[in-house]
Design brief:
283 residues, disordered N terminus, mainly alpha, 0% strand
C-alpha cells in the first residue's frame, strides 16, 4: 500500500469533502486552516493581493497578506516591501506597539534601503501617538525624541525631517512640563532645594521649550524663599534679558522690588552660564 506523506494527508483533510473538513476543525484545535491556502502562494502574488485589498479598503485582509509574505518568504524583496506596508498598517489601525516592533525589525534588517527613513519616521509617530498628558509618565516622549532624532541625524535629506523636528519639540515640551509639575509640587510644600533641582533641569536641558520662562521665575521665587538673594537676582536678570516683556519677568521683578532688590546677574552662577546658552538658542 502506498504511504502518504503528512503534508498530503493534511491537504486531503483540508481540501476534501465538507464532512472531513468539519471533522478536522472540531478534532484538531492546533490546525489553523486559514493559513494553509496561502502557503502555496508566491511572494509576488501575496504582495499584489495585499495591495489590492488595501486599495479596496480591506485593511485587515491586506495586513494578513503582507504578514504572510514576511512570514513565508523571509528576506525576499517582496518581504522587505511587505514589512514596510505592515508597519504602516499597524500604525494606521492604532496598533502602535505592533508598528514599533515591525518597524524596528525592518531597521535591523534594512537600515540602508530607500524606505528606511519612512519606517524610522513611522516608529517615531507610533511613539508620539502614545504621549500622554503632562501629568502622566513621559517615557513615550523620551522614546519619541530618540526615534525622531534618528530620522534627523541618519536621514537629514529625507522629506520627514521637518515633521520629525516638530514632534521632537512637542515631546521636549512635555518632558519639561513634567519637570515643572514636579518642581511646583515640591515648591508648594516648601521643599525648595528639591524644587530648584527640577527647575534647573528645565533651564539647563530644555532651554528652547515653552517652559523656560516659568522655570526661571520659579527659581527666583525658590531662591528668594531660601534667602539666597544673589541667585534670585541672577535668575530674574537672565529672565529679563531673554524675555523682557514676559509676565513672569514682571512678577519676578515685583517680588524682588518688594524687598528693595532688583535683577542683577552674577556671572559666576550656573544660571548665568545657562542664560548664555538661551541667547544662543542651545538646549
Amino acid at each position: 500500500m502506498m504511504k502518504l506523506s503528512a503534508r498530503t494527508v493534511l491537504l486531503t483533510l483540508v481540501l476534501g469533502t465538507g464532512g472531513l473538513l468539519a471533522t478536522g476543525c472540531t478534532t484538531d484545535p492546533d490546525l489553523d486552516i486559514t493559513k494553509l491556502p496561502a502557503q502555496s502562494e508566491p511572494a509576488d502574488v501575496l504582495y499584489t493581493q495585499g495591495l489590492a485589498n488595501l486599495n479596496a479598503g480591506k485593511v485587515s485582509e491586506a495586513q494578513r497578506k503582507f504578514d504572510a509574505v514576511d512570514r513565508q518568504h523571509p528576506f525576499s524583496e517582496e518581504s522587505r516591501r511587505a514589512l514596510v506596508m505592515s508597519t504602516y498598517l499597524k500604525y494606521r489601525q492604532g496598533d502602535n506597539n505592533g508598528a514599533i516592533q515591525a518597524g524596528e525589525r525592518y531597521m535591523k534588517l534594512y537600515p540602508q534601503t530607500k524606505d528606511a527613513a519612512y519606517v524610522q519616521y513611522l516608529i517615531g509617530l507610533a511613539y508620539a501617538k502614545q504621549i500622554p498628558v503632562v501629568t502622566q509618565d513621559q517615557r513615550a516622549s523620551a522614546k519619541t525624541i530618540e526615534a525622531m532624532m534618528k530620522v534627523v541625524d541618519d536621514y537629514p535629506t529625507s522629506e520627514f525631517v521637518d515633521d520629525a523636528q516638530t514632534k521632537i519639540r512637542f515631546a521636549r515640551d512635555n518632558l519639561a512640563g513634567k519637570e515643572m509639575q514636579i518642581g511646583r509640587y515640591y515648591q508648594e510644600r516648601k521643599e525648595y532645594l528639591a524644587a530648584i533641582s527640577r527647575y534647573r533641569n528645565v533651564v539647563e536641558q530644555f532651554g528652547n521649550t515653552n517652559q523656560i520662562e516659568e522655570a526661571l521665575a520659579r527659581l527666583v521665587e525658590s531662591y528668594y524663599s531660601l534667602g539666597l538673594a544673589d541667585e534670585a537676582q541672577t535668575a530674574a536678570a537672565v529672565l529679563g534679558h531673554n524675555y523682557p516683556e514676559s509676565e513672569w519677568y514682571k512678577a519676578s521683578f515685583k517680588l524682588l522690588q518688594s524687598k528693595g532688590l532688583e535683577p542683577r546677574e552674577n556671572t559666576g552662577s550656573w544660571i548665568s552660564r545657562a542664560g548664555k546658552k538661551l541667547i544662543l538658542g542651545e538646549s
